[in-house]
């Protein structure tokens, strides 16, 4: 299978590199500086790094790891119209954190051309992307999933079918909301505990041995958030704000107003107003500390 991979950011680049160890890969990123840096570091790599999407030829699987579903559409639809870019039975796999609404729109448009679409967002850190141990949720037809499973298994160890097209993107964004709520709760608890002059190491032990345990308490607090921590968990503050925005929009489309979701959405929106573009998601702790102590 010939694979086209578009979007070579922190997650996309190692995912593509793992794919290139088993498949013929044509890779592209829209940022010229990123392409130059990747080309400089290639050192005998097996993938072809392209300078334009126009160079994609006879692709069987087109994988996209881009900022949002609108950019995915802007990338995919012209390729569908250009003869020779995609093979007759090509499959498009959107691994971005796209809005399910955009995914359903793209699914409808691609169906008219005979090209199959899977939404396959990932869960895991940059390190998991490098190790090829991501969890990959997949929405779309089972038969299409089975056709591309070997490619997905080159990037992840848990391939989770979620149902119809758009279901994986829906589950991914709701999962990120649940994680954000847990991170917000533990951040506020740490701020209160510090005010009480509690031993934060011991408090972390209590959380992880008790009902307050969650992913943030287990993998972020002691590792990155206690005194002297780097507050670098490997996921962007702005990306979390985007995902919370997707969940919030979904709820509004369904005429729902979940209170905790609304609170998380507003909190992250407030945080990104003053945070630099590269801020890590764990910086929400500092934002909350500043807000609570103001």
Automatic annotation (TrEMBL):
Sample GO molecular function, one term? NADP binding
Tell me which residues make up the 6-phosphogluconate dehydrogenase NADP-binding domain. Answer: 2-160
Task: Tell whether Zinc-finger is among the UniProt keywords.
Answer: no
Annotated protein name in UniProt: Putative 3-hydroxyacid dehydrogenase
Task: Name the lineage.
Answer: Bacteria, Pseudomonadati, Pseudomonadota, Betaproteobacteria, Burkholderiales
Organism name = Advenella mimigardefordensis (strain DSM 17166 / LMG 22922 / DPN7)
Domain (3-hydroxyisobutyrate dehydrogenase-like NAD-binding): residue spans on this chain: 166-284
Q: What Pfam families does its record include?
A: NAD_binding_11, NAD_binding_2
Q: Which InterPro entries match?
A: 6-PGluconate_DH-like_C_sf (IPR008927), 6PGD_dom2 (IPR013328), 6PGDH_NADP-bd (IPR006115), HIBADH-like_NADP-bd (IPR029154), HIBADH-related (IPR015815), NAD(P)-bd_dom_sf (IPR036291)
Keyword annotations for this protein, in alphabetical order, are: NAD, Oxidoreductase
Q: Which residues form the active site?
A: 172
